[in-house]
Specification:
Elements (H helix, E strand, L loop, with lengths): L2 H24 L4 H79 L3 H5 L1
Helix pairs in contact: 1-2
Length: 118
C-alpha cells in the first residue's frame, strides 16, 4: 500500500471519528444516551478499523506472493541460462580436447625426418 493510500485511509478514519463525535455532542440527548452512543460509535469505528487492517493484510500478502512468484521465475530463468552456458563451455572443452587428440595422433602417424630422408 502506498503512502498516499495510507494517508487516504487515515483521513477517512479521522473524519469518521470527528464526524461521529460532533454529531453525538451536538445532538440533544441525556448523558446516558450520549455515553451509549459514543461507545457504540467507538465500537463501530474500531470494527471498521479492524476490517481495513484485515484488507490491508490480505493486500500485502497478495503483493508479497506476487513478488515471490516473480523472483522465483527470474531465478529459474537465470538458472536455465547458466546451465545452457555451462553446457556450451563443456562442449567447447570437448571439441578442444578432441582437436588436441587429433593433432597428437597426426604427429605420431607422421614419418620422422629420418624416415623421409631415407
Amino acid at each position: 500500500m502506498s503512502s498516499k493510500e495510507s494517508y487516504f485511509i487515515g483521513g477517512i478514519f479521522a473524519g469518521a471519528v470527528i464526524g461521529a463525535a460532533a454529531a453525538l455532542l451536538l445532538a440533544p440527548s441525556t448523558g446516558d444516551d450520549l455515553r451509549a452512543s459514543i461507545a457504540s460509535g467507538a465500537r463501530e469505528t474500531w470494527d471498521d478499523l479492524q476490517d481495513q487492517i484485515k484488507e490491508y493484510g490480505h493486500s500485502l500478502k497478495s503483493q508479497i506472493q506476487d513478488a515471490t512468484d516473480t523472483l522465483t521465475d527470474r531465478v529459474n530463468q537465470y538458472r536455465s541460462e547458466i546451465e545452457d552456458k555451462i553446457d556450451d563451455i563443456e562442449d567447447d572443452i570437448d571439441d578442444f580436447e578432441a582437436m588436441y587428440e587429433d593433432e597428437e595422433d597426426d604427429a605420431e602417424e607422421a614419418p620422422s625426418e629420418e624416415e623421409v630422408d631415407a
